[in-house]
From TrEMBL:
<dbReference type="InterPro" id="IPR043502">
    <property type="entry name" value="DNA/RNA_pol_sf"/>
</dbReference>
<feature type="region of interest" description="Disordered">
    <location>
        <begin position="317"/>
        <end position="336"/>
    </location>
</feature>
<dbReference type="InterPro" id="IPR001126">
    <property type="entry name" value="UmuC"/>
</dbReference>
<protein>
    <recommendedName>
        <fullName>UmuC domain-containing protein</fullName>
    </recommendedName>
</protein>
<dbReference type="Pfam" id="PF00817">
    <property type="entry name" value="IMS"/>
</dbReference>
<dbReference type="GO" id="GO:0006281">
    <property type="term" value="P:DNA repair"/>
</dbReference>
<keyword id="KW-0227">DNA damage</keyword>
<comment type="similarity">
    <text>Belongs to the DNA polymerase type-Y family.</text>
</comment>
<comment type="function">
    <text>Poorly processive, error-prone DNA polymerase involved in untargeted mutagenesis. Copies undamaged DNA at stalled replication forks, which arise in vivo from mismatched or misaligned primer ends. These misaligned primers can be extended by PolIV. Exhibits no 3'-5' exonuclease (proofreading) activity. May be involved in translesional synthesis, in conjunction with the beta clamp from PolIII.</text>
</comment>
<feature type="domain" description="UmuC">
    <location>
        <begin position="1"/>
        <end position="72"/>
    </location>
</feature>
<dbReference type="InterPro" id="IPR043128">
    <property type="entry name" value="Rev_trsase/Diguanyl_cyclase"/>
</dbReference>
<dbReference type="InterPro" id="IPR050356">
    <property type="entry name" value="SulA_CellDiv_inhibitor"/>
</dbReference>
Length: 536
């Protein structure tokens, strides 16, 4: 309502409203110094219940006019404005209606702005203005990047390191980034550099997920007795958040939005969406859970939760749009390629590029023969350095395809192991892990020159040795019962070279495993080894 106020914790400013920010008061300032800057400043003590009540009401009021409301943090929301603005008569009418509705419901004067881009919209709200689409870039140009990122919730440890380096280079304002080619920032700083360039330009961060149908990631926690105590709920939900984070990480999903669902004993269901720009770890998930549970249990909907919560559900709503490709030994690029390339560049600058090896597909009958390791940069190669140049270049699969368009990247090898089901293993073990294949009578099973088993294989055992522990970890046990109807794949290889143990006559056996990664075995010179695992 135009009165400068600040939330004070342990003698320092923890939050500040817009009227107070006009006096130069920022988060982290000493209270006494802030009072000197603005003698009329009103100090407020932390009141979680008050914040939760106001926040819960704010979400409900905005949701009545605007769909797809997402919470950045308590007290800050964003939502698409174009469709509601057309329906209500214009952006100014939408803004005025929201202000009036919020003032009537909560008694506070909300700061509302309309602007394209996740960086411009929060700052436009802080300044209570509407920015035309064609003027967003100019609106952000003269503003320092750091306070914009902090205000919008994009300021992370990784971002802090980049901004510190950029400040030394004189890149402080959004205009400084806007004037640079995005390729330059991407080549030097990877996806994070490109993301900050897009934000500084006032653009949306594009969805990095390919549109493929995938299984949803959902974790659920049910209580035998409904719970309505906040601290009890938070204590019980830590394992839920940990499981949820691990599942997203295991499947390679990006966790940028979090959907929280609460079910009451009567069967009513309440849900909320939260943005997770930054480290989406267990701590961040629990923090959003705390904020949302405070809003539900202490806010305007307190009567809806008087019986407590019987079930809590966490969901990643982005998984219906796809996931990152699983890492493979070779083949098509995964979404991790670019981050890996950036890390390789930095490592090469420390130890020398000739000491970094890269896999090269040369073709062959089996995964060990088909890929060779070669230096990424040959010894003696002249490396160019200087402004705008990197020490060396790492080409992506797309770049390589351009230079190799006249010949196939992956030549065909008739009779190769890949013909079993059209795929190569994802992980090859070096050296291979010794195992034994046995019949029902505990007799060792071998394969003859015709590719036939000496006896019906029944079980696989990890043999004692240095790699026994790794083998048990891969299988999850020391003994594995084999499925029936297994067929070996015979490869004669270099039969004329008896000294060549790896590429001589051998046979392969792919073992399917339900709900686990398939494994690949090799029979060579009378011995069995565990060669590789597949990505299921």
């Amino acid at each position: 309502m135009g009165i400068p106020a600040a939330l004070i914790t342990q003698g320092r400013v923890k939050a500040v409203n817009y009227p107070a920010s006009k006096y130069g008061i920022e988060v982290g300032l000493n209270w006494r110094y802030a009072k000197q800057l603005c003698p009329e400043l009103i100090p407020l003590e932390p009141d979680p219940a008050r914040s939760a009540r106001a926040f819960s009401t704010l979400v409900e009021v905005v949701s009545e006019l605007m769909p797809q409301v997402e919470t950045i943090r308590p007290g800050m929301l964003w939502a698409p404005a174009s469709a509601p603005a057309k329906w209500i008569g214009g952006e100014e009418d939408l803004r005025r209606t929201l202000i009036e509705n919020l003032a009537e419901a909560t008694g506070i004067s909300a700061q509302i702005g309309i602007c394209d881009g996740p960086l411009g919209a929060p700052w436009a709200a802080r300044e209570e203005r509407i920015v035309a689409t064609q003027k967003v870039s100019a609106y952000l140009a003269e503003k320092p990047l750091k306070p914009l990122l902090k205000h919008a919730g994009f300021y992370t440890r990784q971002t802090e390191g980049l901004l510190s380096e950029w400040e030394d280079l004189g890149l402080i304002k959004c205009l400084d980034l806007q004037s640079l080619p995005v390729e330059t920032l991407y080549n030097r700083y990877g996806p994070e550099g490109k993301k900050l360039w897009l934000l500084a330009k006032g653009m949306e961060i594009p969805n990095r997920l390919p549109k493929t149908k995938q299984t949803k990631i959902v974790e659920e926690l049910s209580f035998e007795t409904p719970v309505n105590n906040l601290e009890t709920l938070l204590f019980a939900t830590r394992p839920l958040a940990e499981r949820f984070e691990k599942r997203n990480h295991h499947y390679g999903y990006l966790l940028e939005r979090l959907k929280i669902i609460a079910v009451t004993p009567s069967g009513s269901q309440h849900e909320a969406y939260w943005s997770l720009y930054g480290p989406a770890d267990t701590k961040a998930i629990i923090q959003r859970l705390r904020w949302q549970l405070e809003a539900w249990l202490q806010g305007q909907k307190i009567l809806d939760f008087r019986e407590g919560i019987s079930t809590l559900i966490l969901e990643n709503p982005e998984t219906d749009r796809g996931k990152e490709n699983p890492p493979t030994l070779w083949g098509k690029d995964s979404n991790q390629d670019r981050q890996t390339a950036q890390a390789i560049r930095k490592t090469a600058e420390l130890i020398g590029p000739e000491r970094i090896l890269k896999p090269k597909y040369v073709g062959g009958y089996d995964p060990r023969q088909a890929v060779l390791l070669e230096p990424m940069i040959a010894r003696g190669t002249a490396l160019q350095t200087g402004p705008g140049k990197t020490a060396f270049e790492i080409k992506t699969q797309k770049d390589r395809a351009k230079t190799m368009s006249e010949k196939p990247i992956f030549p065909k090898w008739p009779g190769s192991l890949k013909e079993i089901d059209g795929t190569w293993p994802a992980l090859v073990y070096e050296p291979p892990i010794p195992v034994g294949i046995y019949s029902e009578t505990e007799t060792a099973v071998s394969i003859n020159a015709l590719g036939e088993f000496s006896q019906t294989p029944v079980k696989l055992k990890i043999l004692p040795g240095e790699q026994a522990l790794l083998g048990k970890e891969i299988l999850g046990r020391s003994t594995l019962i084999l499925p029936t109807e297994l067929t070996p794949w015979l490869i004669w290889g270099q039969w004329w070279n008896p000294e060549n143990n790896l590429y001589g006559p051998r046979a392969y056996l792919k073992i399917p495993r339900e709900n686990q990664s398939d494994i690949l075995l090799c029979y060579r010179k009378g011995k069995w080894t565990l060669e590789a695992t597949y990505e299921n």
